[in-house]
Every structure is written in C-alpha cells, then in structure tokens.
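Support reply, case 0932

Customer input (verbatim):
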Amino acid sequence: MISSRELAFNILVQALQHRSYINLQLKGVSHPDMPFVNALVYGVVQNLIQCQSMFQPYTKQKVSEPVNVILCMSAYQKHFMNDIPDYAIKSEAMKLAKKHTPYAKAFIHAMIEKILVAQKRIAQSSEDSEAVALETSFPLW
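Our regenerated output:
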C-alpha cells in the first residue's frame, strides 16, 4: 500500500506541475489516513509561499517540481503540524527522495536540515508588506 505522504506527494506534483485540480484528484481516493493526506495537500497549497521561503534563501537556482514538493511538504509538517517529530519528517522525506528524485538526495537532506531549524517569519507591523505577504502566503503584488 502507498504511504500517506507518497499519496500527498503524487497529488501535489500533479497539482503544481500540471496545474490540475486537487479536489478532482482526491475524489474517489481511499486511504486509511485520508484526513492526514487532505490536511497535508491543502495545507501545502495554502501556505506554499511561506513553505518555499524556508529553503529558497539557501538555493542558488530553481529546484525541480518534485524536489520543491518534498521540501514544501517537510516545511509544512514542521511548522504547521505540531505533533509530527523531526525524525519522522526527515525519514519520510528521504524515502520520497530516494524513490522519486535519487539525483537530489544530498540536496534534499541538506535543505531539510535548514527547514528544521528555520523559524516562521511573522510580520512585525502591517507596514512591512513583504512580511505580511509571506505570513499570509499571498503574492506580493
């Protein structure tokens, strides 16, 4: 049986890379841990900009979509889902990396270390538009 994180990974790659609708992909899918899958998929999409901001300062170039999804899933689990331990986040991300992006395992491992120690950025005032855009995951425009 496919793991809940791998199911979420597949749905997110389809949604972000091919611009498909999440609700149509989730329709008719049955999994024993479906509430976790739903929370992870919708949470990553809703907080995509904030999740990406936790690892993008450390990258020199644009990462591929599967790598981006693995890192965003890890960032979301760490900073928005409070009951998931760090070792589980790292372990599951490395399983996904080994299966789907073996060329980027070392990069993903290094970025997850950065994500695990990163702090969510919180706007200090409503004047700081960049911080508000990051906190709300809304484009700066």
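We compared this against your earlier run and they match. Two observations from our side: Helices lie at 4-17, 22-26, 34-46, 48-53, 65-80, 86-100, 105-117, 129-136. The two ends are 43 Å apart (CA to CA). Please reopen the case if you see a mismatch on your end.
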